[in-house]
Specification:
The complex is a heterodimer.
Chain A lengths: L1 H19 L16 E8 L6 E6 L10 E2 L2 E3 L4 E10 L6 E2 L1 H6 L4 E7 L5 E4 L13 E6 L3 E12 L17 E13 L1
Parallel strand pairs in A: 4-11
Antiparallel strand pairs in A: 1-2, 1-5, 2-3, 5-6, 5-9, 7-10, 8-9, 10-11
Chain B lengths: L4 H5 L4 E9 L10 E4 L5 E3 L5 E7 L2 E9 L2 E10 L3 E7 L8 H7 L6 E6 H5 L6 H5 L5 E6 L3 E6 L7 E5 L2 E2 L20 E6 L13 E6 L8 E11 L4 E11 L6 E12 L14 E14 L2 E15 L9 H9 L19 E17 L2 E17 L11 E15 L6 E18 L5 E17 L2 E19 L5 E22 L2 E12 L3 H5 L1 E4 L4 E4 L7 E13 L5 E28 L2 E27 L2 E14 L4 E2 L7 E10 L5 E13 L22 E14 L2 E10 L23 E11 L8
Parallel strand pairs in B: 1-7, 11-14, 29-32
Antiparallel strand pairs in B: 1-4, 2-3, 2-5, 5-6, 8-13, 9-10, 11-12, 13-14, 15-16, 15-39, 16-17, 17-18, 18-19, 19-20, 20-21, 21-22, 22-23, 23-24, 24-25, 25-26, 26-27, 27-30, 28-29, 30-31, 31-32, 32-33, 33-34, 33-35, 35-36, 36-37, 37-38, 38-39
Classes of the chains: A mainly beta, B mainly beta.
């Protein structure tokens, strides 16, 4: 009996030793879906230096809070603008705009300046079905004012995406990948 | 010694004595019918399981032994002189009904609820948690209809230990959307316990222990198989399950069992719409090999479980605004509805769990020594809704666990029986993809001692257990930052149970249990967005173990002839440093997808109290009425408020009509059942900050039907079963289903099942 018992014990201990010898820990992967940065570039129509304003959260959700620029534009001016979406947690930074453009039918940017901002947005570009995509467009400023500018990127998860021009920004058909608000100053 | 047959046959005065035992439960079998096929003579075994035939002639006889709770045994014997034989009948898988079973069960100290026999068979095709939820006091925590976890008296997840075939299940039970990784077809019996016996498995069973027990190996020569099939109309779910057991005629010390299950369901239909991406797929496979000699048994067990579970598309939430909009609408948007397919898209989970176990048991002079070695490999992959067209999971978690358990059972001495044990386990967790919990190594070392004493009407059991756990965590952030955190926890548990039979009809049991549970890694180190809840969840490093004092008292009444059986159980569970997710409404986390409300793992003192009551009244021999009531009051003692996400009160009542057995049709019964679930009115006060996105759903009543019958095709009992859940196709939502924010529950679901045992042990069979 003793012998059998010892055998069991030995087997148990053997088991516990062999298995704790281990392999290396995994490093966190690059989260391909992470968006850290949204940049809006405004170029005055008829020439001038483009200006860029960013929402940046390089370490992703949590950790350090995001850094948000104030959008400063000249009064009574017409600009063309482009949106750029980046993942800057990797090096080199990944340009997610490329992905959005290639899947234009399941994405849509909404540009929502507040009424007080004296900013109007139009001429948004469209996807392959002719429905608004909003990666670029035109901004016109009016008189001097302070306000806000909200940018929302909606993602259509269903297949087919069933995206329509009439979809509101809060359409239940889509969900938000990006939803940020800049402070604006037209001077 | 040997005389010739002819000489003896003339005398015809031989005696054949025998003793009959249940092979699995090792109990003497009273009232077993022993028949000599050749002569037709019959004897009934007495209280000691003995029988005696006299005045037999010498020769070869076929002995057939039948018993209500066992499989029939047919064995040939050759009689040349007076003889005594011991017969061991395999415990029945097919034949017995729950009512019969209950009547044979002797009361046990501590809280114990058991699902077996007919009651378990009626749940075939459901998940493990759904099967358990038919027990009074057990409810479900769900994520849609595919993912469910058992909730025992308000507690779930890591507060419940699941013991799969003697091994503590070490899967990934971090989140509410992580279901136990076990094929319910493995189980012959599901038991929920709270009492001394839980100490054998851990000190942390604050909510209780779920035992998933397969049927013991048969060791009866030949091949026995059993086949189960089922089909459910709602989501076109089919299930196929088979088990084959084999013992070679020439190697009767060996027994083998192979078991497999495959289940697949399409998208689920609510009364008004079908939910896209709610399909599921599940495969289970297990193999057992047993070896038995007089004082040594050895068992090798391997099981594999794999599942893919779709999660409703319309519940994928980008941010808080999306969540609020989705919650406001009565019904999900049409783009997420209407597909009737078995295909599983994103979001989904794919989970695989392997268990390899060896158990050896050695008996010596009444002492039993048992060693169990087990290895578990668990992999969970979560596929989120993604922008890109990749096929990889966004989160890939591996947890591997090795455990070694030694148990020493002492012989019964003057009514005392002691059991001591040591357990060791080593666990390694790694992940890739999205951060959820860090890589870690965890080591536990535990020891326990139990003493049970029984005399006349009184039974007292006591036990103590200590565990030491160390956890070394490492998070390697992308880009090279390393975050290390190490933890050490000591936890102590103890239990005292008393059972007193006041009168043969009245049994009182009471127990007091201390448990403590070390915080889990997700509670310590979570840090990220929980998409299903649109919250930012943060762990807390300085959490201390939860301590619980669980008191319960119950009384059982059984009338003469068992016409009426009733049971009432009161419980009170006080948990100091109860770990929960505390909303921090004034510090939302701003992300590029918007602001997320923050919840932080925190501790408070909680009190969970309640009542489970049930009865069964056999109004007429053919008609019985049963009912079960479950009440729970769960409060936060520090905040003096109710706890969130606790099951509401419920009452279920059913009427069963049993048709008298005929020669061909047996165990025919029809049950009509009404299930009432109250609205949860005990929710946290929302005067200062919202605690939930939506008020609890309304109360509902469901009507269910259950019909079963066994038809004998020759010797083969073919059992047919039909079940209807939600007969009236009622639209309802469950408070503890996280999909309640978006969708209704499953509509009417009709299930049809067939179970056929086929045996090939022809060698001993004459008929």
């Amino acid at each position: 009996m003793k012998k059998n018992f010892k055998l069991l014990l030995a087997a148990a201990l053997f088991g516990s030793v062999t298995i704790t010898s281990c392999s290396k820990d995994n490093e966190e992967d690059n989260d391909e879906e992470l968006i850290t940065t949204l940049a809006l570039s405004f170029t005055p129509v008829g020439g001038g230096t483009p200006t860029t304003f960013q929402f940046r959260d390089v370490d992703g959700p949590g950790g350090n809070p995001p850094v948000v620029d104030e959008i400063v534009l000249s009064a009574g001016t017409e600009y063309t603008f482009t949106v750029m979406v980046l993942n800057e947690s990797v090096s080199p930074a990944e340009d997610i705009t490329v992905e959005i453009n290639s899947e234009s039918t399941s994405h849509r940017f909404y540009h929502l300046p507040s009424a007080a901002s004296s900013i109007t947005v139009d001429n948004l570009n469209t996807d392959t079905n002719g429905v608004t995509l909003g990666v670029n467009g035109r901004v016109t400023t009016g008189a001097v004012a302070n306000g806000t500018y909200r940018v929302v990127l909606r993602h259509y998860g269903a297949t087919p995406p069933d995206k329509a021009e009439s979809d509101a920004v809060d359409s239940p058909k889509s969900s938000s990948d990006i939803d940020i608000t800049f402070l604006t100053r037209v001077e | 010694m040997l005389t010739t047959n002819s000489a003896l046959s003339q005398t015809c005065s031989l005696r054949l004595g025998g003793h009959v035992e249940d092979e699995d439960v090792k109990e003497k079998l009273m009232a077993a019918v022993v028949t000599i096929a050749e002569t037709g003579e019959q004897r009934i075994t007495d209280a000691k399981g003995d029988f005696l035939f006299e005045n037999l002639c010498s020769g070869t006889y076929t002995i057939q032994i039948t018993h209500a709770s066992c499989d029939t045994l047919i064995q040939k014997i050759t009689l040349t002189k007076d003889a005594h034989y011991d017969f061991y009948l395999p415990h029945a898988r097919k034949v017995l009904g729950e009512v019969v079973l209950q009547s044979q069960k002797s009361p046990t100290p501590g809280l114990k609820k058991e699902l077996s026999g007919e009651a378990l068979r009626n749940t075939r095709g459901l998940s493990l948690a759904e099967s358990l939820s038919t027990l009074n006091g057990v409810s479900l925590l769900q994520t849609g209809s595919t993912i469910s976890k058992p909730v025992i008296h308000g507690l779930h997840g890591s507060r419940i230990l699941t013991i799969n075939n003697g091994v503590r299940q070490e899967g990934q039970q971090w989140g509410n959307e992580h279901a136990p990784e076990i094929d319910p077809f493995i189980a012959d019996k599901l038991t929920v316990i709270k009492g001394v016996d839980e100490l054998m498995y851990g000190s942390d069973a604050i909510g209780g222990v779920v035992l998933v027990q397969p049927r013991p190996l048969r060791f009866s020569p030949g091949v026995q198989t059993e086949w189960n099939t089922g089909f459910f109309t709602n989501n076109r779910q089919y299930v196929l399950s088979g088990v084959a057991e084999f013992t070679p005629y020439k190697r009767k010390r060996w027994a083998f069992r192979l078991q497999g299950t495959h289940k697949r369901g399409a998208n689920v239909q609510t009364p008004d719409y079908r939910l896209n991406n709610t399909a599921m797929k599940e495969t289970g496979l297990s193999f057992t090999a047993g070896y038995k000699v007089k004082n040594f048994t050895s068992e090798l067990f391997y099981s594999m479980f794999t599942t893919a579970l779709g999660i409703f598309e319309g519940a994928h939430i980008g941010n808080l605004t999306d969540l609020q909009i989705a919650i406001q609408s009565d019904k999900p948007d049409d783009v997420y509805l209407g597909e009737n397919t078995y295909a599983i898209g994103r979001p989904r989970q794919e989970v695989t769990h392997h268990l390899i176990k060896w158990k050896g048991r050695y008996a010596h002079k009444g002492h039993n020594f048992q060693a169990t070695l087990a290895a578990q490999f668990n992999n969970r992959q979560e596929y989120d809704v993604v922008r890109s067209n990749n096929n990889t999971p966004q989160m890939d978690l591996f947890v591997n666990t090795f455990s070694q358990d030694l148990i020493w059972e002492q012989p019964i001495n003057k009514g005392f029986k002691g059991t001591a044990g040591l357990s060791f386990s080593q666990q390694k967790n790694t992940y890739s993809g999205r951060y959820f919990i860090p890589n870690y190594f965890a080591y536990t070392l535990g020891g326990f001692y139990l003493e049970k004493w029984k005399k006349h009407r009184l039974e007292i059991q006591g036990g103590i257990r200590f565990d030491h756990k160390s956890v070394e965590t490492t998070r390697l952030r992308f880009g090279g930052t390393v975050i290390d955190n190490d933890f050490r926890f000591n936890t102590l548990a103890g239990s005292l149970n008393v059972l007193y039979t006041v009168h043969p009809r009245w049994v009182i049991q009471t127990s007091a249990n201390l448990s403590s549970r070390a915080p889990y890694v997700n509670e310590l180190l979570s840090d990220g967005i929980h998409h299903g809840a649109a919250t930012y969840e943060k762990g807390k490093l300085d959490l201390v173990p939860e301590k619980s004092l669980h008191l319960n008292a119950g009384v059982t009444y059984t009338s003469q002839n068992r016409v009426l059986q009733a049971e009432v159980l009161l419980f009170s569970n006080y948990i100091r440093d109860f770990i929960y997710r505390k909303p921090v409404p004034d510090s939302p986390v701003l992300t590029i997808a918007g602001a997320f409300p923050q919840v932080v793992y925190s501790q408070t003192n909680a009190l969970l109290q309640g009542v489970d009551a049930s009865f069964q009244w056999n109004v007429l021999p053919a008609l019985s009425w049963s009912g079960k009531l479950s009440l729970l009051y769960a409060s936060d003692r520090t905040a003096n408020d109710w706890l969130i996400s606790m099951p509401s009160n419920r009452y279920t009542s059913g009427i069963t009509y049993r048709v008298k057995d005929s020669k061909k049709w047996k165990q025919t019964a029809l049950t009509v059942e009404g299930e009432y679930v109250a609205r949860q009115s005990r929710i946290p006060d929302e005067t200062f900050a919202p605690a939930d996105y939506k008020l609890p759903p309304d109360a509902f009543t469901l009507l269910n039907l259950q019909f079963s019958t066994t038809c004998y095709l020759g010797h083969v009992p073919v059992t047919m079963r039909m079940s209807v859940r939600n007969l009236l196709n009622t639209s309802y939502r469950q408070y503890l289903n996280s999909m309640r924010y978006f969708t209704d529950e499953m509509g009417r679901n009709i299930g049809i099942h067939l179970a056929v045992p086929i045996h090939f042990n022809t060698k001993n069979q004459t008929s």
